[in-house]
Write a structure and sequence with these properties.
It is a single chain. About 30% of the residues lie in helices and about 40% in strands. By secondary structure, the chain is α+β, with helices and mostly antiparallel strands. It folds into two domains: about 1-40; about 45-200. The strands form two sheets. Strands 6-5-4-3-8-9 form a six-stranded antiparallel beta sheet, with helices on one face. It is elongated and about 55 Å long.
Length: about 200
């Protein structure tokens, strides 16, 4: 009398587990064609222009990039994950007797987000916010800068000609939600950036 309910319950539990497992396998087989027929798109980053020049006693920097986001990064953006991009320029003066002197540093950080209600992309730079109809237009606003003043005349010696600049542009994954940072680790799709060292013209 006691064993019958236990056996019925065990059989019911086994049947529920079997159905759940069958459902997971069915979902997996349904996704396989998509995984093989639509491989992930690799990202691309091409430096088109990078120039530093002296003007009015200071230093101005121009740069232009062509950026295509990897598929996984673009998918995260479309699902509501904001992306942060940063560019930085540091001016150094060489010294033979000690490490080179850092005389100036400038940086900019952009926040890129997708607005599903309007189907627009929003780029934020400090308190300034601009909306774009396409992802390409939004990326273009963060990958081209002209006449960016990276050093003031008061920071430079007019007789010193050996200054050089270390410049970088990158996707800042440290700004992603913490659980996501742990999940992506060092995945290649999320390593998007470029660095260069150059001297003023």
């Amino acid at each position: 009398m006691i064993q019958t309910p236990i056996r019925v319950a065990a059989a019911s539990l086994s049947l529920s587990w079997f159905r759940a497992a069958l459902g997971r396998w069915a979902l997996l087989f349904a996704l396989l064609p998509a995984l093989f027929l639509a491989p992930a798109r690799a990202g691309a980053l091409e430096l088109q222009e990078l120039v530093v020049r002296r003007q009015d006693g200071g230093l101005l920097l121009d740069f232009s990039l062509r950026v295509v986001l990897p598929r996984t990064v673009e998918d995260a953006l479309s699902r509501g994950v904001p992306l942060y991009f940063e560019t930085e320029a540091t001016v150094y003066r060489p010294r033979w007797y000690w490490r080179d002197e850092r005389v100036a540093r400038q940086s900019r950080q952009w926040r890129l987000s997708y607005q599903p209600l309007t189907e627009n992309y929003r780029v934020s730079l400090g308190a300034l916010h601009t909306s774009y109809a396409t992802l390409a237009e939004a990326l273009g606003s963060m990958t081209r800068i002209a006449r960016w003043r990276i050093a003031e005349p008061t920071q430079l010696d007019p007789d010193e000609q050996r200054y050089y600049v270390e410049w970088s542009w990158r996707l800042d994954t440290s700004q992603l939600p913490r659980p996501m940072q742990l999940g992506i680790g060092n995945q290649a799709d999320w390593v998007l950036g470029i660095e260069r060292t150059l001297r003023p013209e």
